[in-house]
Design brief:
Layout: H1 4-7, E1 25-31, H2 37-54, E2 59-65, E3 69-72, E4 78-83, E5 93-97, H3 107-116, E6 121-124, H4 126-134, H5 146-155, E7 166-169, E8 172-175, H6 181-189, H7 195-204, H8 230-241, H9 249-256, H10 260-271, H11 275-293, H12 298-304, H13 310-321, H14 325-341
Helix pairs in contact: 2-6, 2-7, 8-9, 11-13, 11-14, 12-13
């Protein structure tokens, strides 16, 4: 698993002191409807394992929401949340789990109050994306899940946006979340545990390593190196990095260093389709993300995904998903109206 004491990047400057005898630290998990159950389980399971290793309840947590009561996650998990009362009952660390419909939450006010107390506030994936959209000029660096990073760049100018697992913006930690959540929680509780205890947490979670918070996120299909050989991964990286101005297959093969015929044979073995078709599917997938999650004009979406015209993109999207871009966006507007009225 590696040396956790060397791998963890300390999250200092939040009023958490190491070296003292461990005391009980309280986590506040702020959830919205449709919260990520993966992130929720990563937080609670990591803290529970830490308590088990320490043989006492060194870390506890409570669940709060601006819609208290029973809150459903993104599949079927139901949690009972307490009301988040402004300026009342703060915990030592606040972790916000966003959701696709979390547009009118009260957590920003609560987060600012936590900042004044010099207490950590952690925003995971959807919540981090909402913070970046709402904060035009954040102090310091920010990040979120890689799937939203390209969308944010298309929407506007975000000079502080990185692709790291976690960043600090004036006491607000924005993070990729998802499968990296457990490692972030380990980083938060690291000041209270010994290196051997941190290693045991990682071992029980079956983590092959505990990455630093400033590690770059694995991105796209090319990040799954265990699934493909190196040449396929290199080809996919080139495709993912050149969606707006697609490369020709001859350019891809020349840069990868193999023949066009060999690349086609490997892609058919792995994906049962040609490299050109795979490349087009990547562009169509990105077009759908921009159509459904932004208000960019459809012509701009077409240009951002390498289609020469709106009509060419519309045909490609319809062929892939069975619905036109206009219908996709209209469906999105209906969902937003239903949510706003509810």
């Amino acid at each position: 698993m590696g040396r956790p004491d060397a791998a963890i990047k300390p999250l200092g400057g939040f009023g958490i002191r190491s070296g003292d005898a461990p005391v009980c630290r309280a986590f506040e998990i702020f959830v919205h409807r449709g919260f990520s159950e993966l992130e929720f389980a990563a937080i609670t399971n990591t803290l529970a394992i830490a308590n088990s290793i320490l043989s006492r309840e060194a870390f506890n947590w409570r669940i709060v929401s601006d819609t208290p009561g029973i809150v459903q996650g993104n599949t079927a998990l139901l949690v009972r949340a307490e009301p988040a009362v402004h300026e009342h009952a703060f915990s030592d660390i606040m972790v916000v789990l966003g959701g696709p419909r979390a547009k009118h939450a009260d957590w920003p006010r609560r987060a600012r109050a936590m900042q004044r107390l010099a207490a950590p506030v952690v925003l995971l994936s959807d919540a981090a994306t909402a913070f970046i959209r709402a904060t035009r000029s954040p102090a310091g660096k920010v990040t979120t899940h890689w799937r939203d990073i390209s969308v944010l760049h298309e929407e506007g100018h975000h000079p502080g946006l990185t692709e790291r697992l976690c960043e600090n913006s004036d006491g607000i930690l924005t993070a990729a979340g998802a499968g990296a959540t457990a490692e972030l929680v380990i980083g938060l509780i690291a000041p209270f545990l010994e290196a051997s205890q941190l290693a045991e947490i990682g071992n029980q979670l079956l983590l092959p390593t505990i990455r630093k918070t400033d590690a770059e996120q694995p991105r796209g299909a090319a990040g799954s190196e265990a699934l493909f050989d190196e040449r396929v991964s290199d080809a996919i990286r080139l495709m993912e990095a050149n969606l707006a101005e697609p490369l020709s297959m001859s350019e891809v093969t020349e840069m990868v260093g193999i023949s066009t015929r060999h690349l086609e044979r490997v892609f058919r073995e792995v994906f049962d389709e040609t490299p050109a078709r795979f490349y087009k599917r990547l562009r169509v997938k990105q077009a759908r993300v921009l159509i459904e999650t932004t208000l960019m004009p459809l012509m701009d979406v077409a240009l951002a995904t390498g289609f020469g015209s709106r009509s060419t993109m519309a045909k490609a999207v319809a062929d892939e998903y069975g619905v036109t871009p206009s219908r996709m966006r209209a469906r999105k507007k209906v969902d937003l109206l239903k949510f706003d009225q509810g």
